């Protein structure tokens, strides 16, 4: 029994300690509107952003703050006007970095520093040697390690210079390789600093789901200066991107050991905020009325609300744009269908034209309504054309065979020759010269016989006689003519054989 009572006492003590721990580590999260901005109405009519100030090449509009436009060597930044009054915090930042090039430059930076930085500094558009935290979204590869786009955090005590040559890799606390350029939806990061633990969650902008965050890095034992300033800066270099910040939402965490707040205190805070809002609305209406009195000629000018687009108007505009796109696509498809129909008609005409020339005995198509099928006369015409093509192919084949046979005959005749080569002259030149020599010898013999007979008969008659030299010249000329004719005929035959 005593042991049971002892165990019960120990259990009661544990329950009491657990309850005390729960009460000590209660965390209350509160939205801080004085350190935030978001659309619509992000910028006022005069271009200012409430509770923030910007400079450099930054431009504020109703939907976003463009820190650096897509031009070379541009720098800009936006900083909170007042320092933080809480120690631990969480920021949700949505931004868009877009450009035409495959590679961008230089990047964007989130700051929490003890003092506000410059608007045209050397580190992503802000000052170097800062005292605090810098989270960099580096889109340009300075160290040629092919590790960009890259997200990393650098902690500085105000004495160190940023290592540009190595992209700050020698000074970083932690980082991750993520692509944040040219995304269909805005890229988002959620930076949480609580109990000296720094955590960064990353949304890649490939969807519009608020739950698609992934862990980039988590670092413990991070000590940041108190009462610092939030800032966002961007810069471009030789390459250029548009660097737009869409919203910057800040929430504060209660101090460690704080107990659960009294509901009455929460109600008083809500009433205080409501009263501040009503005072702001009343002040705005008073400014409108004063402006109308000072400018009576502009009474018909649109009100302040007419300068901006409501949610309903935006939805109607998107629906109208979608319908216009659908109409354009249907119109383009209709035009393509008309082109296909005209091409089909042209092809059908080309098919029907040779039918009348080839199939002369084919009857014309029957009169009547149009039937979307192939007709009998078209089939007969195709068969006739096919038969004619086959006959023509057969004739060409037979001609080719004949040519081949002649070529084989010529090759065989050349192979039977003693030298097995093609002779340039049809007759043997040596035998022809021998025949000419024999002929000349016989002519000489005949001429000598005639001369002997004439010498035996006596003197020549009193008429002009032809001398022997003249006769020999005439015979030689005839022989040359015959020889030239034979050579010409042989050359002509050899050229004719080449075509076989």
Topology:
Elements (H helix, E strand, L loop, with lengths): L1 H23 L4 E3 L20 E5 L2 E2 L4 E4 L6 E6 L7 E11 L8 E7 L17 E8 L11 E8 L14 E6 L9 E8 L2 E7 L10 E6 L9 E7 L6 E12 L9 H32 L16 H48 L17 H41 L12 H29 L10 H30 L3
Antiparallel strand pairs: 1-15, 2-5, 3-4, 4-15, 5-14, 6-11, 6-15, 7-8, 7-14, 8-9, 9-10, 11-12, 12-13
Helix pairs in contact: 3-4, 5-6
> Structural class, from helix and strand content?
alpha+beta
Listing every helix as H and every strand as E from the N terminus to the C terminus, the arrangement reads HEEEEEEEEEEEEEEEHHHHH
Q: Please tell me how large the radius of gyration is.
A: 53 Å
What characteristic shape results from the CA principal axes?
A: elongated
Cα(first) to Cα(last) distance is 130 Å
Number of helices: 6
User: How many beta-strand elements?
Assistant: 15
- Ranges with pLDDT <50 over ≥5 residues? 355-360, 418-427
**Main beta sheet:** 8 strands, antiparallel
Mean pLDDT: 80
Strand percentage = 15-25%
- What is the helix content? 40-55%
Summarize the structure.
The protein has 500 residues and is of the alpha+beta class. Helices cover 41% and strands 20% of the residues.
């Amino acid at each position: 029994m005593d042991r049971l009572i002892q165990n019960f006492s120990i259990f009661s003590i544990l329950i009491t300690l657990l309850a005390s721990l729960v009460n000590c580590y209660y965390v209350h999260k509160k939205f801080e509107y004085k350190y935030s901005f978001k659309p619509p109405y992000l910028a006022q009519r005069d271009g200012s952003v409430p509770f923030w100030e910007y400079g450099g090449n930054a431009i504020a509009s109703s939907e976003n703050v463009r820190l650096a436009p897509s031009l070379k060597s541009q720098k800009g930044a936006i900083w909170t006007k007042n320092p933080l009054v809480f120690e631990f915090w969480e920021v949700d930042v949505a931004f868009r970095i877009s450009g035409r090039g495959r590679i961008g430059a230089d990047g964007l930076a989130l700051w929490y520093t003890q003092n506000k930085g410059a608007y045209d500094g050397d580190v992503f558009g802000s000052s170097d040697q800062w005292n605090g935290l810098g989270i960099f979204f580096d889109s340009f590869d300075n160290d040629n390690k092919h590790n960009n786009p890259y997200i990393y955090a650098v902690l500085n005590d105000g004495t160190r210079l940023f290592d540009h040559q190595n992209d700050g890799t020698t000074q970083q606390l932690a980082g991750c390789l993520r692509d944040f350029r040219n995304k269909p939806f805005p890229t988002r990061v959620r930076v949480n600093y609580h109990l000296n633990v720094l955590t960064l969650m990353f949304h890649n902008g490939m969807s519009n789901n608020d739950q698609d965050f992934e862990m980039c890095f988590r670092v413990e034992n991070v000590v940041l200066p108190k009462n610092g300033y939030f800032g966002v800066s961007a810069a471009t270099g030789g390459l250029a991107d548009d660097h737009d910040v869409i919203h910057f939402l800040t929430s504060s965490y209660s101090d460690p050991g704080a107990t659960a707040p009294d509901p009455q205190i929460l109600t008083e805070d809500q009433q205080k905020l409501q009263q501040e809002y009503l005072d702001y609305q009343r002040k705005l209406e008073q400014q409108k009325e004063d402006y109308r009195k000072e400018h009576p000629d502009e009474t018909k000018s649109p009100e302040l609300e007419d300068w901006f687009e409501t949610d309903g108007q935006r939805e109607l505009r998107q629906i109208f744009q979608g319908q216009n796109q659908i109409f354009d696509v249907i119109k383009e498809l209709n035009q393509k269908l008309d082109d296909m129909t005209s091409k089909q008609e042209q092809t059908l005409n080309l098919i029907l034209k040779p039918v009348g020339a080839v199939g002369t005995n084919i009857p014309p198509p029957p009169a009547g309504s149009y039937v979307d099928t192939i007709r009998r006369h078209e089939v007969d015409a195709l068969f006739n054309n096919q038969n004619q093509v086959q006959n023509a192919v057969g004739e060409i084949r037979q001609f080719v065979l004949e040519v081949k046979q002649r070529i084989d005959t010529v090759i065989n005749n050349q192979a039977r020759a003693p030298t097995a080569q093609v002779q340039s002259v049809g007759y043997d030149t040596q035998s022809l010269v021998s025949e000419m020599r024999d002929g000349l010898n016989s002519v000489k013999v005949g001429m000598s016989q005639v001369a002997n007979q004439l010498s035996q008969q006596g003197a020549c008659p009193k008429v002009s006689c032809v001398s022997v030299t003249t006769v020999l010249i005439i015979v030689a000329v005839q022989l040359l003519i015959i020889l030239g004719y034979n050579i010409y005929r042989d050359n002509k035959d050899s050229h004719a054989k080449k075509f076989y």
